[in-house]
Amino acid sequence: MKYDITIIGAGPGGYVAAIRCAQLGMKTAIIEKRGSLGGTCLNVGCIPSKALLDSSEHYWKAKKEFEEHGIKVGKLEVDFKQMIKRKSEVVAQTVGGVEFLMKKNKIDVYEGWGSFVTANKIAVKKADGSVEEIETDKTIIATGSKVGSLPFINIDGKRIISSTEALELPKIPKTMIVIGGGVIGMELGSVYARLGTQVTVVEYADSIIASMDKDLGKELMRSMKKMGVTFHLNTGATEVTTTGRSVTVKAKNHKKDEEHTFKAEYCLVSVGRVPYTEGLGLENVGIETDKRGRIEVDEHLQTKVSGVYAIGDVIKGAMLAHKAEEEGIFVAEYIAGQKPHIDYNLIPGVVYTWPEVAGVGQTEQQLKADGVPYKAGKFPFRASARARASMDIEGFIKVLAHKETDEILGVHMIGPRMADLISEAVVAMEYRASAEDVSRMSHAHPTYSEVMKEACLAATDNRPLHV
What we know:
With 467 residues, this protein is an alpha/beta fold. It is 32% helix and 26% strand. The strands form 5 sheets. Strands 1, 2, 3, 4, 5, 6 and 17 form a 7-stranded mixed beta sheet that branches.
């Protein structure tokens, strides 16, 4: 078979790229080694973790808030097997939806391991060992990433686990150590903390979710402490061992020069992810990777080999599903002769804990480091009527605007449904709105979005209405 374009990898970046290519009239093929479409995100990442996050949050609210709402539920307990079963059903439905989209757009799907023979010939090694070769004019590498670790840690999938195994535990553990205070660690840590697990977080940096605005990490940690989560910041793990049904983690606080030993039933290793670029036959076409395994691309996301592109987690930038999707669309439209664009500064980041955390644009720390004159406006959800009605009063929205022009430079929020509300900030910043512009827009009352308006009022001339 000969195709106009072939995509290696069927995660969010890959399958969205395939759809857009097909819409633009290209004969399209997609190759996926997993055996099910959707990549890490749909199968063992974004979607299953969100299912468990929602289920555990329902339980937590029933346990902590329903009685205040006047709802009595009697004896409350967790059916963990049903929770995991529901999660798996959500995954199956979502994967099925992607399969439908491939058929609808007449995209040929190949199951197997794709690798380059030449720049225009791809070998697909199937599960039975047979190999099929297809010809292609152009190729997009969208193979995503895999779980990262530390040199001295052996993730055995039994007691020392990654996010993949954390989605399929046989029962709720009594204790869990989480190495890494980033997005994955905080999301899965909060799942089990809500269900009754004593969670201990060991984080090398001086804050959790360290890539986001510092105020967000402080507020999220304050919230998670209320669930009983224990944090050890400025602390790096030095040794992880298992004995029977327990894990021992030795760590050192590099700020206080103190050593610690932690024991638990499980240790979740969440220290980041690494690009999935080995085994692709890149050497056959002259493509090299950097020391982190990433592929270098130009401004059009094309590698050094003409006609071969790379998107998502295999190139520089945030490892986010929606970033990969935008890049997939970008490449498809560029190949078709259009003039697409991506503003990487406006790719939002989200942490799906509760309260949810989201941010876009520059953090306050970045603006200070770059010497940009700015003003900040912050408004708490505690002062929101809608938040009080739903008992979701934790958190705030912080708007950073240029001190002279009032243009919004960054928006950072923690509170209810921030994963959805961050889009208002993205739209405003895409059109280079000022804080005053947003403050003068009508926001429905009572809504969580009013907090965005109030934060912009605070940033404009320090005149919020409800504090």
